[in-house]
Amino acid sequence: MNNYVQSILAHYHLDKTRLIDMLWDIQHQQGYISDQAVGALAEGLNMSPIDIRETLSFYHFFKDRPFGKHKVYLCNTVIAKMKGYNEVRTALEQEINTSFGSVDSSGMFGLGDANCIGLSDQEPAMMVDDVVFTDLTPKKVADIVSQLKQGKTAAEIANPDGADSKDVAYVNAIVSENIQTDSKVLFKPDRDYKAVLQTCLDKLPIQIIEIITDSNLKGRGGAGFPTGLKWRMGRDAEGTEKYIICNADEGEPGTFKDRVLLSRSPKDVLLGMITAAYAIGSRHGIIYLRAEYWYLKDYLQQQIQNFRDEGLLGKQILDTAFEFDIRIQMGAGAYVCGDETALIESCEGKRGTPRVKPPYPIQQGYLGMPTSVNNVETLACASRIIEEGASWFNNMGTDESTGTRLLSISGDCDRPGIYEIEWGTTLNEVLSMIGGDNAKYVQISGPAGDSLSVAKDGEREFCYSDLSCNGSLMVFDNTRDILGIVRDYSEFFVEESCGICVPCRAGGVDLMHKMERIIDGRGCQQDLDEIISWSKLLKGTSRCGLGTAAPNPILATLEKFPEIYRDKLAEQKRPLLPSFDMDKAMSAHELAYKHLVQENAE
Amino acid sequence: MTVKVTIDGQEINARAGEAIVDVAADNGIYIPTLCYTKGKPCLGTCRTCSVKVNGRVMAACTIPVSEGMEIDANGAEITDMRKAMVELLFAEGNHNCPSCEKSGRCELQATGYEVEMMVSRFPYRFTPREVDHASKTIWLERDRCIFCQRCVEFMRDNETGQKIFSISGRGTHARIEIDTDLANKMPAEQVREASDLCPVGCIIDKTQGFDDPIGKRKFEVKTIRERVLEGTHR
């Protein structure tokens, strides 16, 4: 029974930093991670079983109890709910004959929820094992389930022509790219990667850093840290090894641009990593790929192999002394791992808990060594800047926000998909591009970002000093229930909180309950005042960006659409709050009285 | 290297790199903590030591002092934020001081007094939590856990170096766990160490009960503030 665990342990050389890979291998072989498997891992790695479980229980997609031969996760975002989620959910429960969160009686299907799986332009969508199904309807669901029951694998159904999973045709059979604009910086076809890398290696590392600095490229993940400065700090930092990590844990609800970049232009990203490695002096790169994008893994692995075969990765790159190689680290379902220090913890085989800062990863990151964590899009941009020069890049966008921004567009518009806009474009311009004529409310940068009123914010520009969007843009027209959307976002933050710090773990729940109270019409002015005060508390005291961002949707919609909150408020007529339910409060007394007095008397 | 900082307007010379919370205590300024243990790596989990550094709220145990820092430790707003942290913990767990063995030597209770908490502004959750009494040495009273991570990070099996305590799940599902086999191997003094390390009454030494009479208990003899300021509270 434990033989397969032993061979997995041997495969990873008993290296506990590879625990997440080991857990994945076990789950893929056995369907779940049993107590025996945990025990064998613990023994092999000299860890206590509860230490293994510490990691295992943190991630959404790891199962320590049987969860069906086929694991089905339906995406439940607000966008999915606008596109037919409820009908699909009912159909799934009927076809599989089980309810969400459980396994059907035959043990064939486990049915669960998933937060955003990076398919907001083709919702409703679900993950089944290693692939996804998009644009779902009840009929489509019935067909998929029936084929699974007949013994087909999910991959065979999603990829009926049988394309090789190493080939882009496989990816394209499963998901649509939906790129709606012509290439400016990104998605340039037919690049000569070898020639670009040669021009890179012909320069000194410090010159590469200067070019990136001159281009004014800023991190595309959202924080907007200058990439050239980060690389310079990485070069200057002391360490026996240095690491480049590509953050492909694209978990912010509504964004899917990194998925499309990795499928259409994966070598742009790889070349960006190689460039960063050369600049900083690193030999090892990691792509942290979210588990929701498993169907990209073989394809990406093949792209890496192609680069090795062509001499662009590995030892003696392009016949120089420079060596660098890349491995893929799969995630396992945790939004918080988008935080760079949580991501590093996860790469080390641990819970995705954001670290205490300082030190910052660029000084002490992966395995305590200087680590440059860069977004997928940042790296792709860097590879283009090396090819075309800093001033080429500088000429696009605005003075302080140079180049372009990829937007992942979803929601109430005619043409959802990927748009490459120059920084400086206004919200109204974007809306007309995407056919969002009836938009009332726009959520940018996901729930962690900002809520915009088209009436008030239409002329504002996308740029780091104003709308510094991380790429997610969700559009809602005037038929949508804004308070319901905000409540969903609050729940999202509660579900994804790692729980390490008090304000986010405990306070997030209180904020969500306040929203429910307002929506139910039981809230009063005091509740609104407390929402603002508690939001300030979370924003100030939380350990990482998740907790500080959790109140954003409430605060921003309260500012932009105060009337929808006001309309819901109950008047406080008596000293008691309108939310206080006297009957409910007294019911326990009645129950206790009945139990203790009456039943004892009998 | 010495740096100059100000805390609540008071100019202070401090060693660069020392945590704000220690510099403050050395200079007679008490900042409450619940996860921080002097001399050990900071955990940064409880956020009860939040202060304003150059206007931004930060946890004082996580931030080393640097030249010119202006620290607001006792302004009205930040004091209330720290109080709110303690209140959140009281509302999140199930804390019944009168029936708790740790009462009088509980850091959460002592800190509650210091921040002048009367009642939590947050709704009490009353979440049922399961007690783990399987170990021969330790009674794990999960109702009282505040997820400080001290036991997780600082307690290890003497022989193997393995974790004796860990946290499972995440967010609201997080739960303190104990490895029964390793706990049973703990010598008496290590059990006492774990129980003393726990800032609340979650890790209870099964051989220890209500040892000191009311009025003579640890924080009644000397408050947590006094202990921090004289440097005798770890």
Oligomer: heterodimer
Bin the helical content of chain A.
40-55%
Total domains of chain A, how many? 5
Detail the poorly predicted runs of chain A: none
Q: State the major sheet of chain B.
A: 5 strands, mixed
Strand order of the largest sheet of chain B: 2-1-5-3-4
Shape of chain A: globular
User: What is the annotated CATH architecture of the largest domain in chain A?
Assistant: 3-Layer(aba) Sandwich
Number of strands of chain A: 14
What does this structure look like?
The complex is a heterodimer of chains A (602) and B (234). Chain A contains 27 helices and 14 strands. In chain A, helix 11 runs antiparallel to helix 12. Chain B has a five-stranded mixed β-sheet, with helices on one face. Chain B has a two-stranded antiparallel sheet with strand order 6-9. The two termini of chain B are 25 Å apart. Chain B is built from eight helices and nine strands. Chain B folds into two domains: 73 residues, Roll (Ubiquitin-like (UB roll)), CATH 3.10.20.740; 123 residues, Alpha-Beta Plaits, CATH 3.30.70. Chain B has 234 residues and is α+β, with helices and mostly antiparallel strands. At the A-B interface, helix 4, helix 21, helix 22 and helix 23 of A face helix 2 and strand 7 of B.
Question: In a nutshell, what does this entry contain?
Answer:
With 602 residues, chain A is α/β, with parallel strands linked by helices. Chain A contains 27 helices and 14 strands.
